[in-house]
Design goal:
The protein is globular and about 65 Å long. Strands 5, 6, 7, 8, 9, 10, 11, 12, 13, 14, 15 and 16 form a twelve-stranded mixed sheet that branches. The chain starts with 7 loop residues before the first strand and ends in a 29-residue tail after the last strand. It has 385 residues and is of the alpha+beta class. The longest helix is centred in the middle third of the chain and has 16 residues. The C terminus is likely disordered. β10 and β11 form a beta hairpin. It has two domains: 60 residues, Structural Genomics Hypothetical 15.5 Kd Protein In mrcA-pckA Intergenic Region, Chain A; 279 residues, Pseudouridine synthase (2-Layer Sandwich). α1 packs across α2.
Length: 385
């Protein structure tokens, strides 16, 4: 079998609907079925930037298949997910990069064995809860791990805070908060170029004309608002950016930053507008986007809750590298607000590994609040950010 490392193959109309194994066998000269199947299962194949280990995965026109010379690292497991808060109604977790929040529609019919190859966050959290309760409840591991209920999503490569409901009523109330955009969501991203403060307002559509999501030039699509504030500049080459969502549309931050000429480092789908130079040589191994703050109103107690998550090690390493290469404006990285929050988050994690509330009343009080800080215009459905 002859193939060069890093070889990229584009899926044409002829390849649409083929399994990844069949597609690779056609593309790679002299490849046998066993060779291409082993290549996929050993994590040497990426589809549109995501590792694929399912030899039966069917391709879509326009997807990009890349063969890796070195196998990608294994996906996160249940013990890689950190519980930030747990009570009988909700669980807040710190999601590692490399795992999707929930199954895509076409994956819902997969067999349990096939799902185990690449578990999703909502499938791992029940086991994480069992481990957490066992560790903090005298060592007795619960026999049963009830499923959790997703009320919002973040992308596979995005790390950070995600909340799941543990009961049907909690799911309904939390989902309504996300639909009404009354939750608090703040992200940190490392972006190309020198980013200034401002608010980005566009209407996002599924197909901007090239098969990808983007902003519409007319008043159609879903209204999307992102508030952007630079935290730290690295010369004119890169910026650590704070993004607060007023709405939560699919890939909203990634699209908005790319369309303003400052794509998130590691971005492979959305690029800067034609004619705008945005070179990314940061060495990012993934889209450098982190959900650093999450706030909502508890579905039973009515208490306004807010949680924070420190920057993960890979983003801190990139910031350190950029600081060494370009210097920083506005103080060293260690003195930035983002880093201070990260340090505090680490101290909080040591002092209080997770916040566990007393069991709340099953009957919600009549004065339950439906809004929290950062409330905004209603509308829209739960989406990935």
């Amino acid at each position: 079998m002859k193939h060069s490392s890093g070889k990229v193959h584009h899926v044409s109309t002829a390849g649409q609907g083929q399994t990844i194994a069949a597609f690779l066998r056609e593309q790679i000269e002299g490849a046998s079925w066993s060779q291409v199947q082993k290549m996929v299962r050993m994590r040497h194949v990426m589809i549109h930037g995501n590792i694929c280990t399912d030899v039966a995965r069917r391709l879509k026109e326009g997807e990009v298949v890349k063969i890796l010379a070195v196998a990608a690292v294994a996906p996160p497991q249940a013990n890689d997910v950190r519980i930030v808060h747990l009570d009988d109604q909700v669980v807040v977790v710190d999601k590692p990069t490399g795992v999707t929040t929930t199954r895509h529609t076409e994956e819902l019919s997969w067999s349990p064995r096939r799902r185990q190859v690449q578990p999703t966050l909502d499938e791992m959290v029940p086991e994480t809860v069992k481990q957490f309760v066992s560790h903090n409840g005298g060592g007795k591991k619960p026999r049963r791990a009830p499923p959790v209920r997703a009320v919002h999503r973040i992308d596979r490569e995005t790390s950070g805070l995600v909340v799941f409901a543990r009961t049907v009523p909690a799911e309904r109330i939390l989902a309504e908060q996300f639909r009404a955009h009354t939750t608090h969501r703040r992200y940190l991203a490392i972006c190309v170029g020198r980013v200034g403060a401002g608010t980005i307002q566009t209407h996002l559509v599924r197909d901007r004309g090239d098969g990808r999501r983007g902003s519409s030039t007319v008043q159609e699509g879903k209204y999307a608002v992102t508030h952007v504030k630079p935290v730290e500049h690295f010369g004119d080459a890169y910026t650590l950016v704070e993004c607060q969502l007023e709405t939560g549309r699919t890939h909203q931050i990634r699209i908005h930053m790319a369309e303003t000429g400052h794509p998130v480092c590691g971005e492979r789908v959305y690029s800067a507008p034609r004619g705008v130079q945005a070179f990314d040589d940061s060495g990012a191994g993934r889209v450098l986007l982190h959900a650093t703050e999450l706030g909502f109103v508890h579905p039973v107690s009515g208490e306004t809750l807010r949680f924070s998550s420190p920057l993960p090690a890979d983003m801190q390493a990139v910031l350190h590298s950029l600081g060494s290469a370009f210097g920083s404006v506005g103080g060293t990285h260690a003195q930035t607000p983002a880093s201070q929050r990260a340090d505090q988050g680490r101290r909080d994690a040591v002092e209080k590994p997770a916040r566990a509330m007393p069991k709340a009343s099953r009957s919600p009080p009549p004065h339950r609040r439906r809004e929290s800080k950062g409330s905004a215009k209603p509308g829209g459905r739960r989406r990935r950010e």
